[in-house]
Structure formats: structure tokens, C-alpha cells
Amino acid sequence: MNKRKLLLVSNSTLHGSGYLDHCQNHICSFFTRDVKRVLFVPYALHDRDAYAKTAREKFRTLGYELDSIHEASDPVTAVRNAEAIFIGGGNTFRLLKCLYDNDLVTEIRRRVLEDGVPYMGSSAGTNVATISINTTNDMPIVFPPSFSAIGLVPFNINPHYLDHDPSSRHMGETREQRITQFHEEAETPRVLGLREGSLLLVEGNNVKLLGTTKARLFTR
Amino acid sequence: MNKRKLLLVSNSTLHGSGYLDHCQNHICSFFTRDVKRVLFVPYALHDRDAYAKTAREKFRTLGYELDSIHEASDPVTAVRNAEAIFIGGGNTFRLLKCLYDNDLVTEIRRRVLEDGVPYMGSSAGTNVATISINTTNDMPIVFPPSFSAIGLVPFNINPHYLDHDPSSRHMGETREQRITQFHEEAETPRVLGLREGSLLLVEGNNVKLLGTTKARLFTR
Q1: The total number of structural domains that make up chain A
Q2: Angle at which helices B105-115 and B92-101 pack, to 10 degrees?
Q3: What is the CA B109 to chain-centroid distance, rounded?
Q4: Chain B residues lying within 8 Å of A46, measured CB to CB
Q5: Of the candidates B13, B135, B173, which has its C-beta nearest A171's C-beta?
Q6: Rounded to whole angstroms, what are the CA distances from A130 to A12, A75, A92, B55?
Q7: What share of chain B is helix, strand, coil (3-state, %, to 5)?
């Protein structure tokens, strides 16, 4: 797994700023000047055309061309030829189901772990980079064939991690309680609660926490 | 479906009060004096003994004995013999998986719709009473064989429904956005956003909204 090169972002948009603004310097350091074109996966949102347009415009301002996989005649071939991959946020269940429906889970894993293709994920795109989507916050709007994900790192992530607000009168479970429930089940991996504004840079076996808000690690 | 008799509660505990306190008068009107014993399903929480103890103590103060299905030698027989059923809250995925694992989904449906056994659900227990768990808020900590649920009503419910807080700086999807994402998918049913403090009384084809906080209906 030494070729692995990942940038896993908690959230695409930070309150008060534009799409990917808060992490744009990290994106430019991550996709070095060798990368000209990034393959974008818009499956997590319903309107793929609009999503690709937003991502393409942002990436152009950073100096990269963006191809959206939903415009490719064959998605597997698009992954095989990709210089770099970016999976955007939205609904994690819809995203993972669509990755399975298009036979992309194994192909992306192979490209990233064996060929060293740089992988950037944001929110749902970060969830699917981990062992499983068992720690997503999203609503299960569709039924994927499995919760197992691409497995680029040996732990799970909870993006948009939210600390408990002691003034809240809402009685739904806190994020901490939900992750604790996950750890009540057998054989569950560690979970990194990645607060909005945080991101993870993985190079080989080195993991570095970037951003300003830090993260919280939950062990079974 | 004319025998159907359901009490579907959004949340087990309202801020500032004890377990089921906010709906206890409705519970007593719902389980008439003909009911002596209620069959409790504690599958949504990990510690079933502790959960059954809490529920048993509360139901005793209301004048009902409570049998927990996890103490029965055969869960299906317990459902076949039940005078009344109460499925408590917790994690909806864990609950539904366990209902499938014990062959209870069809059996509970039959008892409620054909035999007129009164069914009370709270939170996750309300989710599994609907068409599917596609509109739960819970974390997908285990993988059930399907998201299809018991199907006692022809719509879905989102319990603990939460209105958007315009002062929030958190960038995760609002509840409204999540339900809208559900309705972007094909063939999705209506969703009733049931605020904490609200409950639904279903008798035959009549549905009545009880409680103080009202609900919000989402149509595709």
C-alpha cells in the first residue's frame, strides 16, 4: 500500500466561503503539476451535469481540467485511464450503490493502491474511501449491495463530525452516541471523527491531519 | 387493513421529562383495559436487559405487564401469542436486521393487519412500522438484508423531525434536504416528518395527529 496518496476532506464547503475554498491550497499541493486532468465522480448528487459544472469551474481556477465520469462512454475505462480521481460529496448511499452498479469499487481500489493514482474525496467521497460506509451521517435513500467501501485506509471516518451542543433540546442521538453504537457491534474498526474544516493527507503509511478544526479518534 | 390499530411515537423521551412521560396518557387510551400484557421488542439497543427493565417499570406504572421478546424461547411464537406489541427506539438498522434475523417482519405484519393486535412504536419502532427505513436518521451500523420494513402504513415517517436552524454554521444537509434527496429517487412514497412531541394514532384507515408539535408532510 506504499503508493497510496489520498486527500480526504470532511466537507466541500465551509460556512461563509465558496465550494472547496477552505482546502484549495491543499488541493494544489496534493495534485502536483504532473497532473493535468482530474476524473470527477458526481454520483452522490442527483443532478450530475450541474455538479460537474460546479466542480469543473472550481478546478479550472486551480489550474486543472476536469472530466466527469458520467460523460464517459465507459466508466471503468475512464478510471483505468485517469491521472487523478476526485469523488465529490452528497448522499453516501447513492454514491456507493452507483459505484457498485458501474463495477468501479475494485477498479478504483486497484488504481489507487497499485498504480498510485492520487485520490481526493470530500464528505461522501471521503466515506467511500474507508473500510465501510457504516459511519456516514446520510439518509439511506437507496439500498446498496453492501456497506463495504473502497477500503483505501484501514479505518472508518465520520465526516462533518459534530461535537455535542449542551444547550440542545433535541433528543436524537448525538454523533458520539451514534459512533458508540457502531462500536457495540462486533469487529468494528476505529472511527475518525473529522470536523468540518479538517482534512487528512495520506501518503503511503503516513497520515497527516490538516486544516484548523482537528479530529477525534474513537476506538472500540 | 381495517383492523389496524397503531400508535406511532416520534421520540421516547421529550427534553426535560422521563421515559415515555410525554405520551403516557395516549398510551393508556391506546392499550385499552382489555390488554393486560404488552410484548416489548428491545432489539434497537445493545443492552436488551437494561432496556426491558426501563420499559417494564414504566409500563407497570401505567397498569400493564410487559414481556420482552428477547427473554422468550421462541420469538415468533411470542408474536403469535401477543395481546399487544411495543417496539422501542434505538438504532433502526440494528432493529430491522434483528427483526429479519428472527423471521418477525411478516409475522408482526400479519398479527397487526389481520388479527388487529395493537402496535405501538417509538422512534426506530415507528420507522420499522412504515414502508421502509429509507428515511431514518440513524447511522447504518449494521447491514440489514433489505430496507423494506413491516409496512403497516402506506407512507414513510421521519421521526425526530427537525426544522432547519437558520443560525447554524454546520454544513451537513438539513433534514429537509435529506428527505428531498430521497424524493429524487424513483417510486418513493410520501414522508411524514414527525417532530419530537408528536405521535400518530392510526385506526383502520383513519389517521390522527396527536401531541403538541405537529408534523410536516413531504410529497415527491
Answers
A1: 1
A2: 90
A3: 13
A4: 181, 184
A5: B13
A6: 17, 21, 12, 38
A7: 30, 25, 45
Clarify whether A160 is annotated catalytic.
yes
Cβ pair A4, A113 in contact under 8 A: yes
Enter the DSSP assignment of A190. Answer: P
| Separation between Cα atoms, residue A85 and residue A55, nearest integer Å | 12
**Angle in degrees, CA B181, A74, A140, rounded to 5:** 20
- Interface touch B181/A137, C-beta < 8 Å: no
CB-based contacts of B18-26 (< 8 A; 24+ apart in sequence): B18/B58, B19/B54, B19/B55, B19/B58, B20/B58, B20/B122, B22/B197, B22/B211, B23/B199, B23/B210, B23/B211, B24/B58, B24/B62, B26/B199, B26/B201, B26/B210, B26/B211
Task: From chain A, pick out residues whose CB is under 8 angstroms from the CB of B211.
Answer: none
pLDDT score for B186:
87
Q: How far apart are CA A140 and CA B156, in angstroms?
A: 13
Residue A186 pLDDT: 87
- Looking at A160, A163, A167, A168, which residue is catalytic? A160
Q: State the nearest Cα–Cα gap between B43 and chain A, in angstroms.
A: 13
Shortest CA distance from A14: residue in chain B: B171
User: Does residue B183 carry a catalytic annotation?
Assistant: no
Q: B128 pLDDT exceeds 90?
A: yes
Measured distance CA(A41)–CA(A99) in Å, rounded: 9
Query: Across the interface, do A170 and B185 touch by the CB < 8 Å criterion?
Result: no
CATH, residue A19: 3.40.50.880
Q: What is the pLDDT of residues A78-104, one digit of tens each?
A: 999 999 999 999 999 999 999 999 999
Percent of chain A with pLDDT over 90: 90
Chain A environment of B173 (Cβ under 8 Å) = 138-139
- Whether A122 is a known active-site residue: answer no
- Distances from the Cα of B205 to the Cα of A125, B107, B197, B208, angstroms: 43, 21, 23, 10
State chain A's mean pLDDT as an integer.
96
Average pLDDT score over residue span A152-168: 94
Record the cell numbers describing residue A38, joined without a space: 482530474
* Strand, helix or coil for residue B64: coil
- What ipTM was reported for this prediction? 0.95
Query: According to the model, what pLDDT value does residue B205 have?
Result: 95
Structural domain boundaries enclosing A170? 5-218
